[in-house]
Amino acid sequence: MPGIVIVGVQWGDEGKGKATDLLGSRIDWVVKFNGGNNAGHTVVIGDEKYALHLLPSGILTPGVTPVIGNGVVVDIEVLFHEIEALNARGLDTSKLKISANAHVITQYHRTIDKVTERFLGKRMIGTTGRGIGPAYADKINRVGIRMQDLFDENILRQKVEGALDQRNHLLVKVFNRRAITVDEIMTELLSYADRLRPMVADTGLLLSEALDRGETVLFEGGQATMLDIDHGTYPFVTSSSATSGGAAIGSGVAPNKLDRIVGIVKAYTTRVGSGPFPTELFDASGEFLRSRGFEFGTTTGRPRRVGWYDAPITRYATRINGLTDLVLTKLDILTGLKTIPVCVAYDVDGVRFEEVPVNQTDFHHAVPIYEEFHGWSEDISGVRRFEDLPIRAQEYVLALEAMSGTRISVIGVGADREAVIVRHDLTD
Fold first, then answer.
1. Which CATH class is domain 3-98+199-261?
2. Are 102 and 73 a contacting pair, CB within 8 Å?
3. CATH class as words, domain 103-194
4. Topology classification of domain 265-422
5. Confidence of residue 299 (pLDDT cuts 50, 70, 90)
6. Per-domain residue ranges for the chain?
7. 134-166 pLDDT, tens digit each
């Protein structure tokens, strides 16, 4: 079972690093196939906590080759900052490989991102301001800069000149900012070239050869299904393909080599940034979930919006991704609640929707229809077998499984790496 894809089911921050950790020694390669440093994940190993933003979480596992795929946009300064931080803590990052076709985030991408958001005002998307969207826009407009370009100064200069011909008009004439010179971008990018050279490779070839040898490759998606550029809550989405289809596109590996598709879903729901969120809470229950779950962005530190579990979203993600398994995280956060509402459908102007409405306006006006479940008070953080969970917790998990369209194979019951209940092997 060599090709395993992990994707978020909701709006991100579901705890994908825990699933990567769980597979641990059985993985030979871990690939980040989309996004950039606009999202992060926290991995807890013993007493150590690691916050990663750009690097695949597999970089923390000895023996694993971590890969940044062609579908990722790379802020090189952030890349080396993360590498240096891990090296300082005694971790080996020497096996990291980066696709020669991955696009580079530059100074002008970050500037455009920030001023555009301010310009939008109330219509802002809620980006992190890290240049992700503008870098993807340049990629689609065919004026992007790729990793391989840093090793040919003439080509790089031509590409930087072409990109700035467009970007400087926008900065100067629309946003009243100074023009960015070709030389300052060239100086910055070329300063990284020698250090990057050993890392940059034809990663699509490396991964395909690894799969042909029967090695296990884990494809790790950034963000989540509801933030996917095509299938998410557009326009309040990310700029890349965050669903399982993006694993093939963003890595250069054929889709028929992807064997299992694992969705990560919280026992409740969160999102960061603007956009519709039917089950969002603004009361004491919301504060309970936010404080207990420490719901603050790994990358931005922003408080996350919180709400109850949304079953139609999980069914939608199951269908869009072809999920074979679910990993349910943060079940322990619900401990102490007397009742736990679950959204089972929506009401839109008196019409019941069992599935996520395709019409954006309908989803904006969707009112959740709840079914309530009994809570539990027992501490479950030490539980390692499903049968040892309180009966109310078991009932809650089984109800979510029945609503979600695929099996719940793993349950997270705490922040530690070992705090999981395995019901089904993710590689079986």
1. alpha beta
2. yes
3. mainly alpha
4. Adenylosuccinate Synthetase; Chain A, domain 3 (3.90.170)
5. low
6. 3-98+199-261, 103-194, 265-422
7. 999 999 999 999 999 999 999 999 999 999 988
pTM of the predicted protein model: 0.90
Mind listing the pLDDT tens digit for each residue in 172-198? 888 888 899 999 999 999 999 999 999
Same CATH fold, 265-422 and 3-98+199-261? no
Catalytic (active-site) positions: 13, 41
Average pLDDT over residues 270-295: 93
